[in-house]
Amino acid sequence: MIGTALPAWSLPLTPTLIVSTAIATRDFQDVHHDRDLAQGHGSKDIFMNILTTTGYVQKYVGDWARGAVGPDFRITSCGLRLGAPAYPYDTLTFSGTVVENSDDAAGRQPGTITIDVLGLVSLGNHVNAKVTLVGGSA
Fold it and tell me: How far apart are CA 18 and CA 15, in angstroms?
């Protein structure tokens, strides 16, 4: 499983998606809601918040894990680093690679799987993440 590439996933970014997900994560910082105020703070436009990015990273890995590991997987950690802002009218494209896999010696109990995730926008890397999950019992 090490070296397995996850299928790419592209997410079109709209103002509604950015604003609504910020509200859903209870992030009321103006740079995620108000274009004029965001530009007043030196930004090109409103931009996606870190909680939304984290949720989409976990969704991306989770969608893959349901098929590859089974429905009883559990994400145990998600470390990420933000880079370029994710602005409206851009596309956020995720890719990922399995970098670690530790099944038990008998192969009966799925072990820990670590996936490196990259999320790209037109300006470059929006997010680099390392997600660790544990499979359910066989």
Answer: 5
